[in-house]
Every structure is written in structure tokens, then in C-alpha cells.
């Protein structure tokens, strides 16, 4: 990859109902809804509509007695979590009458390598990509796989050579379980105990991470995609197109008459499917499949709620910054299937910037190219419910449409 080391960012780590993610579409399952601009939301500027205007340079927090303190945008966007504050009952002098509130135990420090990220902003033809690899496996779909979507999706699981290994590449602590309607935090600490930082050097992981700050997930705010962000999107598609899952996806869709014969045209089709903007919440050009599924969005109509946000990498990074508060796993439908540190299909509850996601499901440790491939395949050839096997897991891949776009896609444990 091009690019010198520009620095490291230290990050502080300190049953779902059928169609649950119709929290994304519950009151208006297929209506267009809207979202917002990323750096402002991840920075915690979520209390005032006005704070999300492009001219807002500061976040204001009111102190006892009416005083205000302001945080510049550079403080919020530094990647450092801001401790929660509350007035001291004794009016002590420390922190001018404020004290720090720490809900969770102290988190370990982790590093995310961002060496290459600046180079990703260059035009795609000026970037360096991972070489095409001969994986030593047959990427041609069999007749059986072409006749059975479950077999095809399971083949994609087998082809996910970038999938992480629990206990070797990362460790999670599921904490205690709860029912979706139950309140209270059942997790003493973070979901992720540790993660091998070298995984962020892997090309598809690194390029995926570089996309996550391109969005404002509050629904109802139009996105403005810069030329550099568009180049990051195209470069991500180019990178994953060199992997086994996407090559298999292409051959499968080509055989079905869905993909164009040209691989370059196929890549353009993928970029359009995942990154073209559409509307949510009545606002046009305010959402995309990628943002909703992988980054997450915060509903503004009625009571605030998190929708989407089904990607484990985004969860890890936001938890590391103190913006995600893991609150325990949701009891599985099948007794005896309690999750542990080896489980890679989890149904959990968490808060994101203080907003609750009561039920969320995610595949832990899978690669970005694998998730793109399975959701794309389900969108083109599946239905709203796709009961399949992924390795050891019985899964229902939910896939909701917004017109000719992916409205949402996520796994649910069967």
C-alpha cells in the first residue's frame, strides 16, 4: 500500500422478534426515511437539532448555575471519548463542581493502524491493491449451489478466508443475558476484551474502516458525498473484488443472468447498490445500504432509537471510543444455545451515544467482503426471510427492500 505511517490513533477500550430490525421500518416498513452526517454524531452531538448544522463549530454543555462550557469540533473528533459529567452534590471545587461518572470498568488501550487511510482518498487508479490470489479452491458455483441459496451462502462462509478466529484474533465477554424488553445493564464490562490490532492492516478491513467516518447517521439529514469519499468507496469495491467471496458472488450472479459479463461493470453495479444515496424519513439522499447496515442510523421521529448497525467492526471501534455501551446478550430462542467467547453469531443489546438498540444481531469476526457478498446474494435471489446454514449456525438472513435498493440486511439466529 502507498503511504507512510502518519500516526496511530489510541482508542480507549475500557428473542429478537421476527423482523426486529423493522425498528428500521416498524412504523413505516418501506417508507423512505432519512439519516444524517457522521462525524457530528459519533462525536456525541446528539441533543440538539441545531448542533448538526454544518456551521456548528462547538458543542455546548450547561453547567450548574447556568454556565456553559464549549467543546470544539477538534476535541470531539479526536477519537478520544469524553467522560460523562454530573454535578457534585457537595459542590466541591474539583472540576468546578462537576465529577466524572464512569459506568464501566476502565478499558484497555488499543491501537488502530491508520497508516494507509490518507492514500485511500486518491483516485482509485492511483492506488495500490492486494494482488489477485489463486485461492486453490473452485470458485465456480456447482449445480447444487445454483439450485439452493443456502448451499451458496454456506459456500461463501467456507470462502471467507479473512474470517477471524475466536481466542486467537480476538476475545469477547458476553456477560449476562436478558430478554429484549428488560431494562438494565447485564454486562459488567465491554463486549470485546481484546482484538489483534494487526487485523486493521488487512486490506479489506482497512479500507472498510476508512469508510465509517463518511456518514452522519441521524435520519433526516442529507448526505453530501465528497470526491474523496467517492474514491474511497470505489477503492473499497475494487479491493473486495479481488477476494474469493466476491469472485464467487460474481460468477453466481452471472450464471443467473443478473450480473453483467464485464467484471468492471459488475463492480460499478456493486458500488451503486451499496453506496448510492436514497431517502429515509421523508428526506431524499439521506441514507444508503452501506450506512444503514454497517454504520447504523439514529431515528429522529418519535422516541430516538438506533436502527441498522449490524457490523462487528463498527461495534468494536465505537466501543473502543466509549460511544457504545454493551448491555448484555439477548436470550436465544433455543434453550442450551447460550453464547460464549467462541460464539460468532450474537444477538445483543447496547446503547450508542446514549440511544438504545434493544435488539441487534451481528456476525462476529467475519470479513467485510463476506457480509457484502451474503447480503447482495440474498437481495438479488432471496426473499425477506432466508433460512440458511452458515457454518455451524442456523440463520435467517433478513433482507428488506426500499424500492430497488437494500433497505436493511442482517442475520437472526434461527
TrEMBL record:
Region described as Disordered: spans on this chain: 1-128
Keyword Methyltransferase (UniProt): no
UniProt-listed InterPro entries: ENDOU, EndoU-like, EndoU_C
Residue spans of biased composition, Basic residues class: 103-112
Keywords attached to this entry: Endonuclease, Hydrolase, Lyase, Manganese, Metal-binding, Nuclease, RNA-binding
Cofactor(s) for this UniProt protein: Mn(2+)
PROSITE patterns xref list: ENDOU
SUPFAM superfamilies: EndoU-like (SSF142877)
Residue ranges of every copy of the EndoU domain listed in the record: 145-414
GO molecular-function term, one example from the UniProt record: hydrolase activity
One of the Pfam families matching this protein, by short name: XendoU
CDD domains in the cross-refs: XendoU (cd21159)
Compositional bias annotation for Basic and acidic residues: 17-35, 46-72
Assembly notes: Monomer.
UniProt record similarity statement: Belongs to the ENDOU family.
Protein name per UniProt: Poly(U)-specific endoribonuclease-B
Organism field: Sesamum alatum
Amino acid at each position: 500500500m502507498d503511504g507512510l505511517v502518519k500516526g496511530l490513533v489510541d482508542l480507549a477500550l475500557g428473542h429478537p422478534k421476527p423482523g426486529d430490525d423493522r425498528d428500521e421500518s416498524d412504523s413505516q416498513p418501506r417508507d423512505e426515511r432519512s439519516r444524517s452526517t457522521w462525524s457530528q454524531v459519533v462525536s456525541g452531538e446528539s441533543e440538539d437539532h441545531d448542533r448538526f448544522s454544518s456551521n456548528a463549530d462547538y458543542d455546548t454543555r450547561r453547567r450548574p448555575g447556568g454556565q456553559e462550557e464549549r467543546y470544539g469540533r477538534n476535541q470531539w473528533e479526536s477519537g478520544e471519548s469524553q467522560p460523562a459529567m454530573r454535578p457534585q452534590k457537595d459542590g466541591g471545587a474539583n472540576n468546578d463542581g462537576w465529577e466524572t461518572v464512569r459506568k464501566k470498568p476502565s478499558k484497555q488501550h488499543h491501537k488502530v493502524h491508520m497508516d494507509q487511510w490518507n492514500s485511500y482518498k486518491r483516485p482509485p487508479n492511483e492506488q495500490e491493491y492486494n494482488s489477485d490470489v489463486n485461492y486453490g479452491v473452485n470458485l465456480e458455483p456447482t449445480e447444487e449451489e445454483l439450485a439452493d441459496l443456502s448451499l451458496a451462502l454456506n459456500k461463501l462462509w467456507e470462502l471467507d478466508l479473512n474470517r477471524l478466529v475466536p481466542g486467537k484474533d480476538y476475545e469477547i465477554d458476553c456477560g449476562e443475558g436478558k430478554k429484549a424488553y428488560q431494562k438494565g445493564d447485564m454486562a459488567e464490562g465491554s463486549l470485546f476484551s481484546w482484538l489483534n490490532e494487526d487485523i486493521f492492516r488487512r486490506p479489506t478491513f482497512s479500507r472498510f474502516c476508512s469508510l465509517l467516518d463518511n456518514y452522519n447517521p441521524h435520519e433526516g439529514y442529507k448526505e453530501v458525498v465528497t470526491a474523496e469519499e467517492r474514491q474511497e468507496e470505489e477503492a473499497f469495491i475494487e479491493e473486495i473484488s479481488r477476494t474469493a467471496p466476491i469472485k464467487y458472488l460474481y460468477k453466481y450472479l452471472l450464471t443467473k443472468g443478473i450480473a453483467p459479463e464485464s467484471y468492471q461493470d459488475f463492480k460499478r453495479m456493486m458500488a451503486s447498490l451499496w453506496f448510492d444515496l436514497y431517502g429515509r424519513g421523508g428526506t431524499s439522499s439521506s441514507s444508503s445500504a452501506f450506512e444503514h447496515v454497517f454504520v447504523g442510523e439514529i431515528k429522529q421521529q418519535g422516541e430516538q432509537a438506533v436502527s441498522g448497525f449490524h457490523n462487528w467492526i463498527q461495534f468494536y471501534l465505537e466501543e473502543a471510543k466509549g460511544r457504545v455501551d454493551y448491555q448484555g446478550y439477548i436470550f436465544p430462542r433455543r434453550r442450551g444455545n447460550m453464547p460464549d467467547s467462541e460464539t460468532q453469531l450474537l444477538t445483543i443489546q447496547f446503547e450508542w451515544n446514549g440511544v438504545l438498540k434493544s435488539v441487534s444481531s451481528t456476525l462476529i469476526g467475519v470479513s467485510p467482503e463476506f457480509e457484502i457478498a451474503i447480503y447482495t446474494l440474498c437481495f438479488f435471489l432471496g426473499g425477506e426471510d432466508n433460512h440458511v446454514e452458515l457454518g455451524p449456525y442456523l440463520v435467517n438472513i433478513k433482507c428488506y427492500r426500499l424500492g430497488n435498493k437494500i433497505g436493511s440486511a442482517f442475520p437472526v439466529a434461527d
